[in-house]
From TrEMBL:
<keyword id="KW-1133">Transmembrane helix</keyword>
<feature type="transmembrane region" description="Helical">
    <location>
        <begin position="462"/>
        <end position="479"/>
    </location>
</feature>
<feature type="transmembrane region" description="Helical">
    <location>
        <begin position="183"/>
        <end position="202"/>
    </location>
</feature>
<feature type="transmembrane region" description="Helical">
    <location>
        <begin position="102"/>
        <end position="131"/>
    </location>
</feature>
<feature type="transmembrane region" description="Helical">
    <location>
        <begin position="32"/>
        <end position="56"/>
    </location>
</feature>
<feature type="transmembrane region" description="Helical">
    <location>
        <begin position="62"/>
        <end position="81"/>
    </location>
</feature>
<feature type="transmembrane region" description="Helical">
    <location>
        <begin position="222"/>
        <end position="244"/>
    </location>
</feature>
<feature type="transmembrane region" description="Helical">
    <location>
        <begin position="299"/>
        <end position="320"/>
    </location>
</feature>
<keyword id="KW-0812">Transmembrane</keyword>
<dbReference type="Pfam" id="PF13520">
    <property type="entry name" value="AA_permease_2"/>
</dbReference>
<feature type="transmembrane region" description="Helical">
    <location>
        <begin position="151"/>
        <end position="171"/>
    </location>
</feature>
<protein>
    <submittedName>
        <fullName>Amino acid transporter</fullName>
    </submittedName>
</protein>
<dbReference type="InterPro" id="IPR050367">
    <property type="entry name" value="APC_superfamily"/>
</dbReference>
<keyword id="KW-1003">Cell membrane</keyword>
<feature type="transmembrane region" description="Helical">
    <location>
        <begin position="420"/>
        <end position="442"/>
    </location>
</feature>
<dbReference type="GO" id="GO:0022857">
    <property type="term" value="F:transmembrane transporter activity"/>
</dbReference>
<feature type="transmembrane region" description="Helical">
    <location>
        <begin position="355"/>
        <end position="375"/>
    </location>
</feature>
């Protein structure tokens, strides 16, 4: 008999064959580790703060606080939806059931495509960090080839080795992956707390409360661009909801997501303040993708100065693994609903993980990473990916938030406090993200009058966003009219 999940919307329980096929193997701290690894605070700090400084100036703490508020509000919607219907498809299933199966499919599609793009680009970041570590160890060439941390080809190939290894661990089991990620996080956070805490007192740049004042941001353009970059940094907390079927207690998934999100915010505030205490604005902005490494070198001598770089490498590795885990489960849910082929639903006979889907997703990311080497520098890769994915994340976060508001609107009458969390908060968060995402998309369009394959060409960045969305339409149409998926024919099932 298929299990049921109680739904307090009055639309009845969902049933689904294979709903408990995967093992319930993780708890609160495991889920928090997966969510925290997916948000990858160390990588976001090491790479994102430098990029944001070039946009918002000395207001890194302000923009991180400002972006946290709508994301936190939307997290309330995610938590409520997961409480009544834990599902490997998470937002794909919730949006499809509540709003429209077409919107639900596109939500799952852009989530998957965005994550695969992120995985492909993160392989480059990982490879760059490894080469920088080798340089610190005075190993600067192999077989006569000079190692260059800014070489897209070298960094991508080395990062792909790490990606494949991370995927194989994920196939082995979610519990093993969570244990690995917890170990990596302990080291990362110890390094961040140590260096950033020391930087607060050792820095010689004058501290100012204006750093935390969002009304002092230089322009609305800076707010919109900075918000999208900051939301990108918070992106990933919801990955724990994709493993909701494997969490022993559904509430633990919600708690883990909130815990990871709050910890991220505190780390971003600490790091943003410490970076601005230690580094002048021009140095912070100019170092971009190497910001954390440069920060460590300003505060310590070798070998201690290498610790932030090691932490960045660990964060990139954990982020790769925690990206493939929820993506494979999202595809598993789509295959289970009949919108994709049955190959995505094949579980490992011993570990009950979506092994085939995990390897397929990894293979797609590998292929995309190899194609991406046409963009010549690591910084260009990062800039193009962050801007495009930031708009996509704003879109599917907003759709999920609207789904929560529609599904639980009755709570405004029956339980106003719960209604605030599940309806009003998510609606306000969705409005903010749609506004900044839409404004950023317009600035992409308005920033140039020609198309160029370059990370700073607005039409190119806008094209990446559009392609991520429209490529899902043929697949949705195929699932609706050829596969005749129950997801489209009876979305409440």
């Amino acid at each position: 008999m298929a299990p049921t999940v109680k739904d307090d919307t009055g639309s009845g329980p969902r049933t689904g064959a294979g709903h408990d096929a995967m093992h319930k193997s993780i708890g609160l701290l495991d889920g928090a580790a997966i969510a925290a690894s997916s948000t990858a605070a160390t990588s976001s700090i090491g790479i994102g703060l430098g990029l944001m400084a070039g946009v918002v100036g000395l207001h890194l703490p302000a923009i991180m606080l400002l972006a946290f508020l709508p994301v936190l509000a939307i997290a309330g919607g995610y938590g409520r939806l997961n409480a009544v219907e834990p599902d490997a498809g998470s937002s794909y299933r919730w949006v499809g059931r509540t709003l429209s199966p077409w919107l639900g499919f596109l939500t799952g599609w852009v989530n998957t495509v965005g994550t695969v793009v992120f995985m492909a680009y993160t392989t480059t970041v990982t490879g760059s960090a490894v080469i920088q570590l080798l340089d610190q160890a005075h190993l600067r060439s192999v077989a006569g080839l000079r190692l260059d941390p800014d070489s897209t080809v070298q960094c991508t190939l080395l990062g792909l080795v790490v990606l494949i290894a991370a995927a194989l661990v994920a196939v082995r089991g979610l519990d093993l992956a969570a244990r690995l990620q917890k170990a990596l996080l302990v080291f990362e956070y110890a390094v961040l707390l140590g260096f950033c805490g020391y930087g607060l007192f050792a820095g010689d740049q004058q501290f100012s409360l204006q750093w935390f004042n969002p009304f002092d941001l230089p322009s609305f353009d800076a707010v919109a661009q900075g918000m999208v970059l900051a939301v990108f940094c918070y992106w990933g907390f919801e990955s724990v909801f994709s493993v909701g079927e494997e969490v022993r207690e559904p509430r633990d998934a919600s708690r883990a997501g909130f815990l990871a999100l709050v910890v991220m915010m505190l780390l971003f505030l600490l790091a943003g303040t410490a970076f601005q205490r230690v580094l002048p604005l021009d140095e912070l902005a100019d170092n971009g993708a190497h910001g954390l490494t440069y920060f460590g070198e300003k505060l310590a001598h070798q070998p201690l100065a290498a610790l932030p770089l090691i932490a960045l490498t660990f964060s990139a590795v954990a982020s790769l693994q925690s990206s493939v885990i929820p993506t494979a489960r999202g595809m598993y849910a789509m295959g289970r609903d009949g919108v994709l082929g049955g190959v995505w639903t094949r579980l490992h006979p011993r570990h009950a993980t979506p092994a085939v889907g995990t390897l397929l997703i990894t293979g797609i990311a590998v292929a995309l990473a190899l194609v991406s080497v046409v963009i010549p520098t690591v910084n260009d890769l990062i800039s193009a990916a962050v801007n495009a994915i930031g708009v996509i994340v704003a879109l599917y976060y907003a759709l999920t938030a609207v789904a929560s508001a529609v599904r639980f609107r009755h709570l405004l009458r029956t339980a106003p406090l719960e209604g605030l969390r599940a309806v009003l908060g998510p609606l306000l968060g969705a409005a903010v993200l749609l506004a900044v995402g839409g404004y950023l998309a317009w600035t992409f369009y308005d920033s140039t009058d020609h198309f160029e394959l370059s990370a700073d060409n607005g039409w190119f960045e806008l094209t990446v966003v559009v392609l991520m969305i429209v490529t899902g339409l043929p697949s949705a149409a195929w699932a609706r009219w050829r596969r005749r998926s129950p997801y489209f024919l009876d979305p409440t099932s």
